[in-house]
Write a structure and sequence with these properties.
Layout: E1 2-7, H1 14-23, E2 26-31, H2 34-39, E3 43-45, H3 51-60, E4 74-77, H4 79-82, E5 87-88, H5 102-105, E6 138-139, E7 147-150, E8 161-166, E9 168-169, E10 184-189, E11 191-193, E12 199-204, E13 208-215, E14 218-221, H6 229-240, H7 244-247
Parallel strand pairs: 1-2, 1-3, 3-4, 4-14, 5-7
Antiparallel strand pairs: 5-6, 7-11, 8-10, 9-12, 12-13, 13-14
């Protein structure tokens, strides 16, 4: 069985995530102990709720500066994926006492390999000018560049984005092997990351946003794999099959 540690961040629906991992063949441990997390072959960062509360909990556990130093495969799901970015628009007036990017600067992981396959400009919805991530109200882990911003409501499109939606392939990666164009996954969120060079699959809900991302050993899925039936199960199996050696060739 593939071993994995699920980070107990205190704000996640961990039970359903653990059940999905065990169905996928994982030997799962739930922990907030840094030595246990650091020694794990793989790490999953789950999350539901608000970015500000999640970052406050990670800081209180001493994990906000440490998680970016991990070198094994790491997967963030839903809010857990959003926390991988530099900052979030969510949580105005909170989290101003933490310096954005501190964890990334201290990272001792292997050098990040930037993807060379980029989505064409015509595939990416234009973005409105926005504040720098460093100026956003909730600084996050600064593992992936960019900011998490609130989805824009347009006629016929409701926020939060809740329900099944199609995945749009952007570039090949072992994490998304076997996922077909227009496979559907289950989303529940009001904030998202824009498409960029780290996007493996995108989604559209009034605007396009990153649904699956990867940078070096850090990956993320905006949707809920544990609620996405066969598509979610395949993504988790793919992640459990990853190793540091596999990712070094991506």
């Amino acid at each position: 069985m593939s071993a994995i540690v699920v980070v107990d961040s205190g704000v996640a629906n961990i039970g359903s995530v653990v059940a999905a991992l065990e169905r996928a063949g994982a030997a799962t441990t739930v922990s907030r102990d840094w030595d246990t997390i650091r020694a794990a072959p793989r790490v999953l960062l789950p999350g539901v709720g608000a970015a500000a509360a999640a970052m406050r909990e990670l800081r209180s556990l001493g994990l906000a500066e440490r998680l970016p130093t991990l070198t094994q495969p790491v997967l963030g799901i839903c809010l857990g994926m959003q926390l991988l970015f530099e900052g979030s628009e969510e949580g105005a007036g909170q989290e101003r006492d933490w310096v954005p990017g501190a964890g990334a600067r201290e990272r001792s992981a292997v050098a990040v390999r930037e993807p060379t396959d980029k989505a064409s400009a015509s595939d990416i919805a234009p973005q409105s000018p926005a504040p720098s991530p460093a100026l956003l109200p909730t600084p996050c882990l600064s593992i992936l560049p960019g900011a998490i911003r609130r989805l824009t409501a347009v006629p016929g499109v409701r926020i939060p984005h809740m329900g099944w939606n199609a995945l749009l392939p952007r570039r090949a990666h072992p994490l998304v092997a076997g996922l077909d164009p227009r496979d559907y996954a289950y989303f529940v969120h009001s904030y998202a990351a824009a498409e960029d060079a780290h996007t493996l699959m995108a989604c559209e809900h009034g605007q396009r946003f990153a649904a699956i991302v990867a940078r070096a050993n850090f990956m993320g899925a905006q949707f809920h794999p544990e609620r996405s039936a066969a598509v979610g199960a395949l993504l988790l199996r793919n992640f459990l099959a990853l190793s540091t050696e596999t990712l070094a060739t991506c």
